[in-house]
Design brief:
The longest helix is centred in the middle third of the chain and has 17 residues, at 149-165. It is built from eleven helices and eight strands. It has 298 residues and is of the alpha/beta class. Helices cover 41% and strands 18% of the residues. The chain has a domain at 18-147 and 215-287: Rossmann fold (3-Layer(aba) Sandwich). Helix 2 (93-107) packs across helix 3. It has an eight-stranded mixed sheet with strand order 1-2-4-3-5-6-7-8, with helices on both faces. The protein has helices at 58-66, 93-107, 119-130, 149-165, 167-177, 187-196, 200-211, 219-223, 242-251, 265-268, 271-286, and strands spanning 16-25, 28-37, 43-47, 70-74, 112-117, 135-141, 229-233, 255-259. Its EC number is 3.3.2.10.
Length: 298
């Protein structure tokens, strides 16, 4: 007898478009590049980790867009295919938050669920502080807060030293990794290669600007964020300790903490977290936005 075929899960195709905007900073006009997935008015903005490209969120963006969201992934200044000035004063979480608001203005999006990983999570928090009326919700993975200070110094201090005083090492690494065809290697290997594709001066400027600036809003500011939030943390990662994610979820009045099984879960087995993220984002858009009179935001 013939063996019955088990149908594959339904795949929903979504449109993908690359765009750009020019952000007017202090004495500069910088080009930022982004990718749109899907369509509609239920906007989601996803932000990458430090030195990483926006492509790291490609899978999640496609999953959310297949669920009916209009998703945008952005290369922040100094990252990916956006401009990379060599001035450390151009880089801070506040400056990055202003770039996200400029993106929303460019797209004509009144509000969005803003999310990100590591640096991207911290920038999303800044957006909720500088433009709370533009934030429908926060989808935060691996925020970098109080408990990550020592590990962050150990991880990014040598990078800053190498970029400043041994720039040939950064340039040599770029020469080796840049020619590798990204389509011939596994997805996350390609993301790693993209992350290593750095120029010494802009890389040093990014690390310097973030290293010596405010890495995240102060605790009193975080406690005043009224937007709903899903905060994802995982064990065994000193730079992104689960304690920081859990602490943030406790501080914010409408936040929920989700413990990932490991740092690899959302990379290699994303179905559970994708589903939770989609449910959360749908909930943000189905609920009425919080108002200044909402007691949950007091």
């Amino acid at each position: 007898m013939p063996v019955p075929l088990v149908p594959e899960p339904e795949r929903v195709l979504v449109s993908e478009r690359i765009g750009q905007l020019f952000h007017e900073g202090e004495g500069s006009r910088d080009r930022l590049e982004f990718t749109e997935y899907g369509a509609g008015e239920r906007w989601v903005v996803l932000l990458h980790g430090q030195l990483m490209p926006r492509r790291m969120h490609q899978h999640l963006a496609r999953a959310l867009a297949a669920g009916g969201m209009h998703v945008v992934t952005l290369d922040l200044l100094g990252h990916g295919r956006s401009d990379r000035p060599a001035d450390p004063l151009m880089y801070s979480t506040t400056a990055f938050a202003e770039q996200v608001v400029a993106l929303l203005d460019h797209l004509g999006a009144e509000q969005a669920v803003v999310g990100g990983t590591s640096l991207g999570a911290n920038v999303a928090l800044e957006v909720a502080v500088v433009a709370p009326d533009r934030v429908r919700g926060l989808l935060l993975e691996m925020p970098v807060l109080d408990n990550a200070l020592e590990a962050g110094i150990l991880a990014f201090g040598p990078l800053l030293f190498a970029a400043r005083f041994l720039p040939v090492s950064i340039s040599a690494l770029r020469l080796v990794t840049r020619p590798v065809p990204r389509g011939l290697v596994p997805f996350w290997v390609g993301i790693g290669l993209d992350t290593l594709d750095q120029r010494p001066a802009p890389m040093a400027a990014v690390v310097h600007g973030l290293f010596f600036g405010r890495i995240a809003p102060a605790r009193r500011m975080r406690r005043a964020i009224g937007a709903p939030a899903m905060v994802v943390g995982h064990p065994a990662d000193p730079i992104h300790p689960a304690a920081d994610a859990a602490m943030l979820a406790d501080e914010m009045p409408r936040a929920r903490f989700v413990r990932a099984r490991s740092i690899l879960e959302w990379r290699v087995s994303p179905a559970r977290l994708d589903g939770l993220a989609l449910d959360f984002v749908r909930g943000c858009w189905s609920a009425a936005p919080a108002s200044a009179d909402d007691p949950r935001t007091a």
